[in-house]
Amino acid sequence: MSAQTKPQHKLTVGRSEVEEFLFEEAALLDDWKLTEWVSLFEPGASYFVPTAGSPDDADPSATLFYVADDYHRLTERVKRLLKRTAHVEYPHSRCRHMISNVRITGGDDREFLVTANFATYRTKRGRTELYFGHHNYVMTLSDGAIRIRRKTSFLDSDDIAEQGKVSIII
């Protein structure tokens, strides 16, 4: 097939649709609707949180990550966090996920790249913590709906020792 007759794939969603999707994701996390949140991911998806200060090309097979979940581990994480026996998050922390500077950085409907800045506030037992950085997403359109294929949350703070462990979904 020549370059002239090769079918062209383009992205049919715009930034406003992607922003609405990310705002809905944030609302689900704020409301602890984790089962609904994980349904935003397509089967086979992954969720990563590299250690603070990691470069964007960090590889979980070669570097320590706070979270390196394939789809199965992600769904199990959600089940554990929703149980009363998850003492670190029962009762649940109160959270606010702020999303800004959403950009589509390439791709087409089969697979497109999105980046967004975030600030996540978590408060529990009189203590408030701030996690901030940027998310890199690989997304796809499936039956007209946006789905997450991979989400990587990069923390910009150089040390989270004061906050302790990451027990919430960033």
Q: Could you provide a short overview of the structure?
A:
By secondary structure, this protein is an alpha+beta fold. It has 3 helices and 6 strands. The model has no long low-confidence stretch (mean pLDDT 89).
Give a structural overview.
With 170 residues, the chain is an alpha+beta fold. Helix content is 19%, strand content 42%. It has 3 helices and 6 strands, in the order H-H-E-E-H-E-E-E-E. The protein has a 6-stranded mixed beta sheet. A hairpin with a 2-residue loop joins strand 3 and strand 4. The longest helix is centred in the first third of the chain and has 16 residues.
Which helices and strands, and how do they pair?
Blueprint: H1 15-30, H2 34-38, E1 41-50, E2 65-70, H3 71-82, E3 94-108, E4 111-124, E5 127-142, E6 145-155
Parallel strand pairs: 1-6
Antiparallel strand pairs: 1-2, 3-4, 4-5, 5-6
